[in-house]
């Protein structure tokens, strides 16, 4: 590239996300978001009380082309204008991932564009680089970077992780994660138990508003000393979470009321459950951040919409001297712009594109930022 | 640059194994296939690129894309469809779906059996639907030597099929209850070549234009004589699932919905 202006032009990247129940197509130029179109099959999962992988995969196929067209239209560009196509290669639901991956390969092949198969979790962090709404503050290279010592707490129906990000394109480390259910899944299952509907996060949040979070003392998973150890001798699950015991405890509480023929105190149980989840998530995340020198923590994932999580996390980050960043909720939930944002970073960093033969990896580790 | 006559199509099927073909007015220019059922997401896009290179055709030289819509295992089926949707969208050409079983039927009609069963008679095409069932449809040869769909496609236990000779891998899976037209034919998998041939023939005689793409132009090459007695082999480019998603509504949700 001899022309200085073209060398400095930030990459125009189209991102595709189909790892769960949102079909997302986003378009960014560097860190400037031009489009973020999301088509959700959430309604189709309501009667099941959780995401049904086959239903999600069917919906992705039907939604893909209309979502793509709308995103291109919103951005006012054509596919031939883009510098690269980025797509979530994993982790996620295998059948759902394969729809987006195959569609992305088709676009890359037909338009002769480089393909980047990227990590969904790292993409959740990449969204934090996008310009705040209405602001286009890109520097000469059009790319801002994450602050040093950044961490990310990702909480959704599909994942619960704390990450340390040395570099978004070359150094991401998993500090801790759930060993069973994702936090959002625990919300869904508990909402189902309490007859509160789906998705469970907002339903529990609403029911909890009038309840007493101290009415029940539900367990905080993996907090016993044998799991946590100490800073000097960390236990195996020091920074990990578990929500299956909590779910069982809620079921037992509900059952006791039913057996006794007494009305189930739904609001109190919801509030106490939510407090247990939020308490253990924030306590472990903030401690992990502190022990790994993280000074800026980003929150991502659909459960970032939960009021109590935001409140308690803000409180504990402030107490620990950690700066908390929470993107708008529409960018915390799964979307294509986050995939495009990470793709743009990879292009700018000169990372080699993926081959047309990359697989969907439903359990792709965070260290594999692109494949 | 070669000036194509407008008859070149790309056909893709991923309903069982996977296959790709580039056809030019009924002639196969290049083809690729695999019987492996578990690697569609990895291999199919590269196979399309390779087959098009071999056929010396680019997206700009294509008249349309044809895709097998199954029936077949859902995940693999969607890989081919998602790919085909993107290709047709970017190239701006029509996308046509064809029932994948039609390919078995067309092969059976084009290669009359060496066995006693007559090629003019009715027969079944059957593929593996897993769970002790087959996907199947009933066909006969029409006067022009093309397979004509009479019934189906549907999914059933092999024992419930009409008593007719069977082609396709479904026959070899349930030899106790299905009568293969021949041993060789009971190994057949659907293939993009016949799907392409069937679609081209339909387009020549003025079949339905593709469901997508801005450049769907009427066929000027062939005699536009719509055959009103035969139904079109061209379908919407969406999977023929034939089965529900299998999702069970949890007991707690059922109770809630009933109340
Ligand atoms: Zn996510």
Please give a handful of descriptors for the protein shown.
heterodimer; A: 371 residues; alpha/beta; Nucleotidyltransferase, domain 5; disordered N terminus; B: 259 residues; 2 domains; six-stranded mixed sheet; 6 helices; binds zinc ion
Unreliable sequence segments of chain A: 1-7
- Proportion of residues in β-strands of chain B: 15-25%
What name goes with the CATH superfamily of the largest domain in chain A? ATPase, nucleotide binding domain
Query: CATH architecture of the largest domain in chain A, please?
Result: 2-Layer Sandwich
Helix content of chain B: 25-40%
Shape of chain B: globular
CATH topology of the largest domain in chain B: Nucleotidyltransferase, domain 5
Q: What integer is the average pLDDT of chain A?
A: 93
The number of distinct structural domains of chain B comes to: 2
Average pLDDT metric of chain B: 85
Our Rg estimate of chain A from Cα atoms comes to 21 Å
What is the count of distinct domains of chain A? Answer: 2
Give me the side-by-side strand order of the main sheet of chain B. 3-2-1-4-5-11
Q: Please report the number of helical segments of chain B.
A: 6
How much beta of chain A, percentage-wise? 15-25%
Helical run tally of chain A: 13
H/E topology pattern of chain B: EEEHEHEHEEEEHEHEH
Kindly report the name of the CATH homologous superfamily of the largest domain in chain B: ATPase, nucleotide binding domain
Largest sheet of chain A: 5 strands, mixed
Enzyme class (chain A): transferase
Pfam family, one (chain A): TsaD
EC number (chain A): 2.3.1.234
Family (chain A): Belongs to the KAE1 / TsaD family.
Task: Describe what you observe in this structure.
Chain B: Residues 204-236 are annotated as: Disordered. Chain B: This is tRNA threonylcarbamoyl adenosine modification protein YeaZ. Chain B: It comes from Nesterenkonia sandarakina. Chain B: Residues 38-146 form the Gcp-like domain. Chain B: One of its GO terms (cellular component) is cytosol. The complex is a heterodimer of chains A (371) and B (259). Chain A contains 13 helices and ten strands. Chain A folds into two domains: 12-132 and 331-349, Nucleotidyltransferase, domain 5 (2-Layer Sandwich); 175-327, Nucleotidyltransferase, domain 5. In chain A, the strands form two sheets. Chain A has a five-stranded mixed sheet, sandwiched between helices. In chain A, strands 8-7-6-9-10 form a five-stranded mixed sheet, with helices on both faces. Chain A is globular and about 65 Å long. In chain A, helix 3 runs parallel beside helix 4 (94-111) and helix 9 packs antiparallel against helix 10 (266-291). The two termini of chain A are 26 Å apart. By secondary structure, chain A is α/β, with parallel strands linked by helices. Chain B is α/β, with parallel strands linked by helices. Chain B has helices spanning 40-55, 74-91, 100-110, 169-173, 192-204, 251-258, and strands spanning 8-13, 18-24, 27-34, 64-68, 95-98, 123-128, 133-141, 147-157, 165-167, 179-180, 234-235. In chain B, the strands form two sheets. In chain B, strands 3-2-1-4-5-11 form a six-stranded mixed sheet, sandwiched between helices. A five-stranded mixed sheet of chain B has the order 8-7-6-9-10. The longest helix of chain B is centred in the N-terminal third of the chain and has 18 residues, at 74-91. Chain B starts with 7 loop residues before the first strand and ends with a helix. The model of chain B is unreliable at 1-6 and 209-229 (pLDDT under 50). The A-B interface holds A 47-50, 52, 54-55, 57-58, 60-62, 64-65, 68-69, 79, 94-95, 98-111, 192-193, 195, 197-198, 355-360 and B 40-46, 48-49, 59, 74-75, 78-87, 89-91, 212, 238-239, 241, 245-250, 252-253, 255-257.
